[in-house]
Design a protein that fits this description.
Layout lengths: L3 E6 L2 E6 L19 E8 L2 E8 L4 H7 L1
Antiparallel strand pairs: 1-2, 3-4
């Protein structure tokens, strides 16, 4: 499997590759049909950082209510 994410910043293409990281964080948001997160680019000190943001603030509460 491939766990790569491509983004553009300052007319450059960046790639975040977690394919061989061995960490379970690479499995977050694996569903293409029912994803619960979206990515957001944050720029800190001129460098791009990729963030994962919940699509719904109270996602867990809604799931518990059924």
């Amino acid at each position: 499997m491939c766990y790569m994410y491509f983004l553009k910043h300052d007319n450059k293409t960046w790639c975040v590759d977690a394919t061989h990281s061995g960490r379970i964080g690479r499995l977050i948001n694996h569903s293409k049909k029912n994803c619960n997160l979206h990515t957001k680019l944050f720029v800190v000190d001129g460098l791009p950082h990729l963030g994962l943001v919940a699509k719904e603030v109270d996602l867990l509460l809604k799931r518990r209510r059924g």
